[in-house]
């Protein structure tokens, strides 16, 4: 009964440290990424609510990236803390089994591995795709914020703006607009059906998704390559059809794992993945799936490596340096996993090696660890 309480105490301490470290890393990384996402408001004209929702939907991917490193740090810090406070010495004196404690570390690692696989395979693609849909389905209600004085602006697809001057009231002066896709809809019916337009106006302002222009000219080019000029004192241009150059089609990272598997098994079965059957695209798909399903496999391996801290040697110098040696070795394993991941899409051998490496190393190091623990017990 007492041993079970001790095992539970150790597990709680490790998980508590893991959650604290993971949240700290996530908060820092999310803040940095949220700053980068400010372009959605400043450059692309999306509202603050869209920017904030988009940023929040990216949190799960950040969490997933830091899970292995957070687990390595939490397990190492916990063991070193137990050792400094003489808690481990007390446990060994009371007859606790080091092998049993190692197995508890592995069980915790397997639990975290399972959670990371759920995040990588299911939750992350869902939230990332939702964030992309958020941009795709949202309207631009801060278009005037992207129009700046004395600057050519091609934020909007098919439309180029030049504003010579803009005052604090939002009034625009000496406006030049080039529309090659027919995005601008005017109250002049004849112009509404034309595709290529150049608009010059002395003054204007934006209100209610409409661009109000004064004292200008509209030069249009129709499908018959005929040019027509229309002068106006005042006109309205609808900007509801504007779309930014922000990528709105789902990327591979935002595609469900099921669709990616279909891409590998059946040619072009994942219709929203363009050129799914090409070698380059399949390589990207394999790399993405390897990150989602393969990277978590290195977490149990980390638990075995760090468990070597439980072994004591007579040489005091080794006991002092071992925590640094073991931590650096485990960290190198994670770096190796990240680097090897880049090559998984090149060939079947690379991807197979990526999945087999943590399994083989886990088995070898686990038996080596058990052997050392048994030898230590006999001394």
SSE string: HHHHHHEEEEHEEEHHHHH
Morphology: elongated
Please count the helical segments.
12
Largest sheet: 7 strands, antiparallel
Adjacency order of strands in the biggest sheet: 1-2-3-5-6-7-4
**How confident is the prediction overall: mean pLDDT?**
79
pLDDT < 50 stretches: 187-194
Structure commentary:
This protein has 379 residues and is an alpha+beta fold. It has 2 domains: 2-138 and 249-378, no CATH class; 146-238, no CATH class. The chain has 12 helices and 7 strands. It has helices at residues 2-36, 39-42, 48-56, 59-84, 87-93, 98-137, 189-192, 257-265, 279-293, 298-306, 316-341, 348-378, and strands at 151-153, 159-166, 172-179, 185-186, 196-207, 210-221, 227-238. Strands 1-2-3-5-6-7-4 form a 7-stranded antiparallel β-sheet. Strand 1 (151-153) and strand 2 form a beta hairpin. Helix 4 runs parallel beside helix 10 (298-306) and helix 4 packs antiparallel against helix 11. It starts with a helix and ends with a helix.
Summarize the structure.
This protein has 12 helices and 7 strands. The chain is of the alpha+beta class.
What brief labels describe this structure?
379 residues, 7 strands, alpha+beta, elongated, 7-stranded antiparallel sheet
SSE order and pairing:
Blueprint: H1 2-36, H2 39-42, H3 48-56, H4 59-84, H5 87-93, H6 98-137, E1 151-153, E2 159-166, E3 172-179, E4 185-186, H7 189-192, E5 196-207, E6 210-221, E7 227-238, H8 257-265, H9 279-293, H10 298-306, H11 316-341, H12 348-378
Antiparallel strand pairs: 1-2, 2-3, 3-5, 4-7, 5-6, 6-7
Helix pairs in contact: 1-4, 3-6, 4-6, 4-10, 4-11, 6-9, 6-10, 8-9, 10-11, 10-12
